[in-house]
Amino acid sequence: MAPKKNSAKRPQPSTPKPSAPARIVKVQSSDGHILQADVRALLLSSTLAATIKGYDDENKPLEKLEVNNVVGFTLKLVLEWCEKHKEDDPAIAQAEKDKKNIFIPSWDRHFLTKLPMGNLFDLITAAYHLDITGLINYGCKTVANSAKGKSTEEMRELFGIPEPWEQPSTSTATWDD
Amino acid sequence: MKLSKFPYLVQQEVLSNMASSHLFLLSFVSKNMKALIKSSQVARFKNVIHIKYNCMETNQPDVEVFYRDAWDPIVKIAEEGTRTDGFQLTVSGKLIDFRIFYLILWSSKMIQMILKKLISGYRFMYGPFPEEKMSKMFGRDARADHIKFSPESEFYQAESMKVDQYEHTIPAVLQHFQGRQAFIRCRYCKISDLIGFVNEWKTGKGFQRLEYLEIRIRSFDEGLPQNEILDGIGAKYIAQRNHHQRMFCRKFTLIIPILNRIQTESSATHTSLEKQMVMWRLFGFLGKLYGLEYGTKQSSSF
């Protein structure tokens, strides 16, 4: 059968897990903002999941998680996304990443596209630091989609790539020549 | 947003989610962006099965890349249209009008300049492009029916080539081919050229690496001149009962269907090394098996 033009369809989620009672913990951003979140939402972050597991293994009370590399505004966005997806099967996000076959659901599309590019950038970077596969998938796909229909000059502006004559002539120049 | 500030894995993820055409266009933005695309998309490029250069029936050539389970258009060259959603890009010091996925062209000189730039980017991403010298890829008047590859073109160095042509004659595209397999479908075929090609091939004067040739002629207005072809290439009918007595090796296949009589089976096409007899199955001739004698022994391991 002839191959088809690149397109993506979202894998079907598995049967939803029965809801467990919410376990709320405090999360502190790098600039001191304290937010509250359901632990199930935080478990979407592999980084935070490891920390939470450490507390649980040692039977320590988990009162507050510190996220030192994400500012409050961005952390709020992260937690909003995680709260929305806390029932998701993490295997779906991983499968999508592995297959490069990412379909952005309508809620996520609206959530991500309404953000200014700068905020989206911060959100993806935070997702990367916190290792949230699904958010990285959707964020990167959103950025990639934003290049559709753009001219080279618009792409240059979109991705913050300076004109060649704006580049320093020293050896410390970045890849944005 | 500065893409360069993203962690490398995020940059890679973003680029991996872009269509080939967008990557292709993005590669023009900066040299280092081009380098990033190349280094971060190794897996994508390794997944390429083949690349299609479509120059048929239209003066709007296009290039598409086929992956294992999908395909992506890369670029299409078109005449100037009425659309106004274009943008300008400096190519070789000249300002050229572009349109997303379309290049608006006015002259052959501009075509050559644009293609030179495009192919430079293309080579960076996908490896050799089938034409080094752009001025030879397109004729001077830039019409599609004058598209031709130079004899030195890397196009001819591909191991396998599949060509779908409307009006061009078969030998024209095979003349400089150095690969092992060629699949050609055309609507018209100049019989004298075909005979000349086959004779050159079977006598070992040319196309010595060619091991498999499949030609499908989609239609022939006055019927396929079977006897002319058979006589011209020196084919001799081989009785069916003799087939099993030979140590056959798969070698050459020539499929010349008459109208809709197309068959794809090629297993009965072999070469007997001992007898130096090339066996041809000319499916257009009711599937009969023919032999072509030639003088030099084949060194092929087939």
From TrEMBL, chain A:
Residues 134-163 form the SKP1 component dimerisation domain. Residues 1-21 are annotated as: Disordered. Pathway: Protein modification; protein ubiquitination. GO terms for molecular function: cullin family protein binding. One of its GO terms (biological process) is protein ubiquitination. Keywords: Ubl conjugation pathway. Probable essential component of SCF (SKP1-CUL1-F-box protein) E3 ubiquitin-protein ligase complexes, which mediate the ubiquitination and subsequent proteasomal degradation of target proteins. Regulates cell proliferation during embryonic and larval development. This is Skp1-related protein. The gene is skr-17.
From TrEMBL, chain B:
InterPro entries: F-box_dom (IPR001810). Residues 1-48 form the F-box domain. PANTHER family: F-BOX ASSOCIATED DOMAIN-CONTAINING PROTEIN-RELATED, F-BOX-CONTAINING HYPOTHETICAL PROTEIN C.ELEGANS. This is Protein CBG12276. It comes from Caenorhabditis briggsae. The lineage of its organism: Eukaryota, Metazoa, Ecdysozoa, Nematoda, Chromadorea.
